[in-house]
């Protein structure tokens, strides 16, 4: 029943003293009577006193099967139940991609998928699929050519990166897998598409952009060294570590022992999705779990003398707080961290703003260029796979070994 129908019933209940519950029961009775009246087969009582009729059954040669019940009311109940089941199955078969996306999103919410992931998937859908004609097509009628045409369209003129395409592909994979789960289809068209054809159609990622330069890093540290503020200390320490912002702002003073920072928890940004696919207010939780691989997430980070000096200043600034960085008795949040970085640091220094995650890239690149082995760097970043770590390395300097090899090979 729609919200409008419910409001009308509530109106009649108030105005004419008609019970909503009674009205709903009356409506249900009328619908059931209509089902019995439209039943295509004769309902009759046999000589043995039992009641008989037929129900549609496509598995039978004549398209029907006989049923028998002890009373007329029971045979009516069976007819009504069968009708509603077939109607529901027919409705399911008529679901389009848009309908399935909604069902999939609500199923994931109800089965405990991370709210952040749900919001990211929704954003990909809204940006690339919500206005595309593909979403109005029945899920049972979509084949690999429809998927291929869609990706050809969104990669036209190198409009998106391959990473973005992969994100959209992940959403579609999830929707079709849910259609299989609901037994609407037996096979997803997604694996039938040759995705290699889209590599050259995608916008190349510039691995040399987004990092803070060494000069910018030094400029920021010098500027903030005179600012006695939790945001100042938080930004400074970020430039000496490879932490996610959620890990950094969740650091408690007790996590620092003998010049070692123990990463035990993270602040998570949450937004619960409603049934109509809108999202509730943002709220934050501090949880003892780390993004990605849990085994690699809980780790120990050595603190350099300068990093330890920043820690001590932060503690002196707020000696009684539970967390290392607090403002007005509360831990800092990622959004306010980035806002402070942009408005209070980058703009006054005339430095291009890059958010907290790019500080993580910057530190990772600096450590790699200084000779840290990639497996050790992966541990600091909490990556279980070094391929992910290489994505974080945005080299700006020419490799000295490469330069030496070029001299030996070419300057002869």
Automatic annotation (TrEMBL):
The keyword DNA-binding applies. Pfam families: Phage_integrase (PF00589). GO terms for molecular function: DNA binding. GO terms for biological process: DNA integration; DNA recombination. Gene3D superfamilies: 1.10.150.130, Intergrase catalytic core. Keywords: DNA integration, DNA recombination, DNA-binding. Residues 208-406 form the Tyr recombinase domain. PROSITE patterns: TYR_RECOMBINASE (PS51898). Belongs to the 'phage' integrase family. This is Integrase. It comes from Faecalicatena orotica.
């Amino acid at each position: 029943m729609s919200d409008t129908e419910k409001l009308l019933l509530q109106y009649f209940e108030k105005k004419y003293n008609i019970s909503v519950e009674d009205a709903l029961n009356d409506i249900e009775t009328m619908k059931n009577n209509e089902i019995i009246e439209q039943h295509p087969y004769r309902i009759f009582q046999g000589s043995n006193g039992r009641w008989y009729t037929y129900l549609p059954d496509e598995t039978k040669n004549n398209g029907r099967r006989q049923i028998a019940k002890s009373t007329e009311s029971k045979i009516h109940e069976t007819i009504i139940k069968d009708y509603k089941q077939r109607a529901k199955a027919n409705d399911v078969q008529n679901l389009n991609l848009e309908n399935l996306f909604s069902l999939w999103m609500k199923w994931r919410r109800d089965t405990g998928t991370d709210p952040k992931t749900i919001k990211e998937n929704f954003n990909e859908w809204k940006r690339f699929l919500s206005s595309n004609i593909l979403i109005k097509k029945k899920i049972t009628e979509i084949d690999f050519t429809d998927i291929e045409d869609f990706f050809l369209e969104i990669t036209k003129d190198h409009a998106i990166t391959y990473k973005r395409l992969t994100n959209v592909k992940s959403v579609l994979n999830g929707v079709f897998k849910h259609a299989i789960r609901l037994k609407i289809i037996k096979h997803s068209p997604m694996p039938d598409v040759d995705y290699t054809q889209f590599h050259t159609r995608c916008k190349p990622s510039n691995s040399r952009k987004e990092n803070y330069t060494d000069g910018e890093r030094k400029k920021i540290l010098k500027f903030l060294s005179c600012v006695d503020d939790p945001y100042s200390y938080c930004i400074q320490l970020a430039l000496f570590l490879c932490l996610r912002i959620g890990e950094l702002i969740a650091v408690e003073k007790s996590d620092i022992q003998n010049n070692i920072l123990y990463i035990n928890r993270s602040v998570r940004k949450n937004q619960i999705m409603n049934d109509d696919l809108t999202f509730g207010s943002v709220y934050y939780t501090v949880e003892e779990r780390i993004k990605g691989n849990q085994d690699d997430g809980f780790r120990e980070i050595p603190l350099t003398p300068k990093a330890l000096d920043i820690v001590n200043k932060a503690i002196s600034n707020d000696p009684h707080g539970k967390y290392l960085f607090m403002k007005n008795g509360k831990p800092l949040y990622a959004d306010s961290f980035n806002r402070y970085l942009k408005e209070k640091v980058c703009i006054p220094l005339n430095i291009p703003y890059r958010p907290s995650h790019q500080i993580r890239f910057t530190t990772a690149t600096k450590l790699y260029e200084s000779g840290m082995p990639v497996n050790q760097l992966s541990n600091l970043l909490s990556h279980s796979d070094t391929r992910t770590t290489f994505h974080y390395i945005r080299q700006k300097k020419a490799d000295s070994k490469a330069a030496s090899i070029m001299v030996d090979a070419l300057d002869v």
